What we know:
Layout: H1 15-23, H2 25-40, H3 49-68, H4 79-101, H5 103-106, H6 108-111, H7 120-127, H8 129-147, H9 155-159, H10 163-182, H11 186-197, H12 212-219, H13 222-234, H14 245-269
Helix pairs in contact: 2-7, 3-4, 3-8, 4-7, 4-8, 4-10, 4-11, 4-13, 7-10, 10-14, 13-14
Amino acid sequence: MSASLSVQPLETPTLSTWANLVKHRELIENLVVRDVKTRYKQSALGYAWAALNPLIVALTYYLVFGLWLKQGREIAIPYTIYTYFGLLIWNLFAIGLSTATESLVMHLNLITKVYFPREVFPISAVLSKLVDVGFGLIGLVPLLLFFKIAPSPKILLAICLLPIPILFTIGLGMLCACANLFFRDVRYLVTMTLGLLAFAVPNMYPIGIIPMEHRGVYLSNPIAVTIEAMRRLTFPQTGSFAELIPYLAIASAVSVAMFFIGYTIFKHNEPRFAEFV
């Protein structure tokens, strides 16, 4: 096995890139369906875990931060709903990135076979987590009924913000998948880093505790600003959506840049993948 670097021309996303992915959309769809079915196969509760997982974490946050530490009293909606909603987006990123990181290693048997764009593996790994978001939103309904909270019709607009974290996660996922194929320690570093980054998004605490002088940097994080923006659109009483628009523009640029960087480095190293199988 050779770890020597080879010089390959840099390939950035172009219209032909998208056309090639569209050409292989059936493969991506099949990988997404297989991932979802495998994840919940032989599970007694099945797809209900997509809602139960964030609900259990949200209740834990409520017990620790809400009841014990008396946090979140200034939040305009029940703390459990506040955290549950944010966790849906956080899990899309965290679980999507973890799965994307291991996507090449999990499909080693296919890498050396007939050619198809290898980026379909991290892409499908992230897209499959959208199914969890969908079931998680369904699981939100009983909470809303219990607390007698009505979401705004703008929740449909909130869903339109999902491409921001999706692009960011796919781009970062392609980087991590490539690195993990070369150095299998990367998956452990990703898991450890995600544990720390969980404190860098407004799930267990309101965004108001972030000092104003640091809030601009905080909201440039595509995951953090998407969580807060989607929450404000769905529950307008939690804050003004309009003040987040400039940060959403920045986050969108960061996400697109991350996708371009991730794709470029992934394709640059793709010819070497077979060396590490």
